[in-house]
User: Fold NAD-dependent protein deacetylase from Saccharomyces mikatae IFO 1815.
Amino acid sequence: MSVKKIAAHMKSNPNAKVIFMVGAGISTSCGIPDFRSPGTGLYHNLARLRLPYPEAVFDVDFFQSDPLPFYTLAKELYPGIFKPSKFHYLLKLFQDKNLLRRVYTQNIDTLERQAGVKDDLIIEAHGSFAHCHCIGCGKVYPQQVFKSKLDEEPIKDFVKCDVCDELIKPAIVFFGEDLPDSFSETWLSDSEWLREKPSNSDEHQQQPLVIVAGTSLAVYPFASLPEEIPRKAKRVLCNLETVGDFKTNKRSTDLIVNQLSDSFAEQLVEELGWQEDFQKILTAQTAVTDASKERLLEVVHDLESLSLNRSERDDSNKQDKMPRHTDYHAIDEHKKMVNKSSST
Assistant:
């Protein structure tokens, strides 16, 4: 019924553009694990490895002291291995129909881009593999500078900046780094757009829609976005569980769909009568193969092998490789939070 209501809202407001806010749940059908799902999430898979804590693979201090775990993970998850999901192509369909205002994504997989969504409509809140930068001076490098090292077998050395000799990594936001300026700047503009008073123009009288999908809404500041949506804009949540502000401060106008994002995409397309256009987009793309699932298994296998190699080091060497200035009390608190939360 919620999907029918969403379609009815869009039919009643045919010129109203939509903002999407998405997380790892829209990419799990592609073979990419989310981070926090118990038993299947990336952090669960990494928890049994000999890292000081699972999140260390995305910790800037740990990366600086030992880049190899991230290099190993990046080799398996690098863009091009996985294909977009039906939900990703739903974003493309909204764009084609001139109904897409913006996509705010927590994902680093660049699958929104691969599905054909234009760069200026995507805000990658946590960065992505699309660019590289030096962790020291911030100099920007082409994507291929980092990717070229991943083709080495085994990886012998790491890419360093030609200015300050610090490590180069993809422009993914690690723990200890700030979110890109584009995130806050664009959201300021879009939130003002959502608050615009109706004018005499029919287009401006349309009621906008914000669709949140595939996210646990556990990581801030991204998790605060739904809270900041003005009440005049209808909010939609597509997630296996009701989370975040939809759970703690549910609005009477909220529409909640507790199901997989791909199923939601298919049902919404059907309710809107867009099946033919959607099928054209799907047909033009390469189908997801079992190879993506096999690559996911390789992530854990390769990191386990790496863990065994590292266990052979003596205790003093291990101590040298520990992250610098790490707040372990904060890490313990974070892990408690993770264990209490779940996402699709």
The beta strands are 18-22, 100-105, 122-124, 127-134, 140-141, 168-172, 209-213, 234-238, 255-257. The longest helix spans residues 290-311.
